[in-house]
Design a protein that fits this description.
Helix content is 33%, strand content 17%. It is of the alpha/beta class. The protein has one domain. It has an 8-stranded mixed β-sheet, with helices on both faces.
Length: 302
């Protein structure tokens, strides 16, 4: 298992640029969005994916170089993944497993991705490997994206290799998940089970803005499942550094770490689209505000 996944560590794409969001019912404590707090991430996740779901697509902001707080991938593996045991059939992770026989194309693709991957923590790929191994132990089959040599050559030949990579990831993920959904529908033991994807939050938007439509498999998978697609983004508050990229996220202004950082906070951006912010590793001391959202104890999403 480790060898199979390790050979797929071609490149991770920085993602999570400007996830789209539309205002839900106003809430005094969370700005324009509905939100709730939970005692643990697994409680929030279970609330988000309740009901008759066929695809759960999880997005993250990859851990930056020098990060000290545990990444979204590590926390998902250790605190959330177990909730999918018996309910999910497959986990598709955003790592490329190129075929044998195209070493030159692999090397060129790695080179093209360096402007992005050099900003990531060195542990990012190995944490995806650990996630796959943990999933298999739970009975959830992990798999990688499988580009052809031609796919990698096209990325290298493109005028914009990053753009080409984003489009390739969208296509490979979409095709893989559609095939798994079809197999599940024809397999009694897997009928009704969830297919899970895990990768950068730039790809899983259910309703992406026009400029990112070509990078997101969300709309296609939402249609393929007849509206049984759920988008969940997992963010580490220590990584939310106040940069313009983070400020552009629709929920960012509503998240106050001093007030909300002690617990897991979940924002509902729109129907079947959620953001879960993990608790701070060392939350700042702060008195709860009168309008602070209550801990979710009903199992229902906000």
């Amino acid at each position: 298992m480790r060898e199979r996944f390790a050979t797929g560590l071609l490149f991770l794409l920085a993602a999570c640029r400007h996830p789209a969001g539309a205002a839900a019912r106003p809430d005094a404590s969370c700005g324009a969005f509905e939100c709730a707090q939970y005692d643990s991430p697994i409680e929030a996740f279970r609330a988000a994916i309740g009901g008759d779901v066929r695809v759960v697509s999880i997005g993250e902001a990859h851990a930056p170089k020098g990060a000290r707080a545990p990444s979204s991938a590590k926390r998902f593996t250790e605190t959330i993944l177990s909730s999918l045991a018996g309910r999910a059939s497959d986990l598709v992770v955003e790592l490329m497993l190129p075929p044998s026989g195209c070493r030159a194309e692999v090397a060129l693709a790695k080179k093209a991705e360096e402007p992005v991957t050099t900003r990531h923590a060195s542990a990012d790929p190995s944490e995806y490997v650990a996630m796959g191994e943990a999933a298999r132990k739970l009975g959830v089959v992990p798999d990688l994206l499988r580009p052809s040599c031609a796919d990698l050559a096209a990325i290298d030949a493109s005028d914009d290799p990053i753009e080409a990579s984003l489009r390739t990831i969208e296509r490979l993920t979409r095709e893989k998940v559609v095939a798994l959904l079809d197999r599940n529908a024809r397999t009694p033991g897997d009928a009704g089970k969830i297919v899970v994807t895990y990768g950068g939050a730039i790809h899983n938007d259910r309703a992406p803005p026009p400029e990112r439509l070509a990078w997101s498999f969300g709309p296609a998978l939402d249609q393929a499942t007849g509206g049984r697609y759920v988008e969940v983004d997992l963010f580490v508050p220590e990584f939310m550094d106040g940069s313009d990229v983070w400020k552009s996220r629709p929920f960012y202004a509503a998240y106050d770490p001093a007030r909300l950082g002690r617990k897991t906070t979940m924002f509902r951006l729109r129907e079947r689209s959620y953001v879960i912010v993990f608790p701070l590793v060392e939350p700042a001391a702060a008195e709860p505000s009168p309008g602070e959202p209550k801990v979710g104890d009903s199992g229902s999403p906000p």
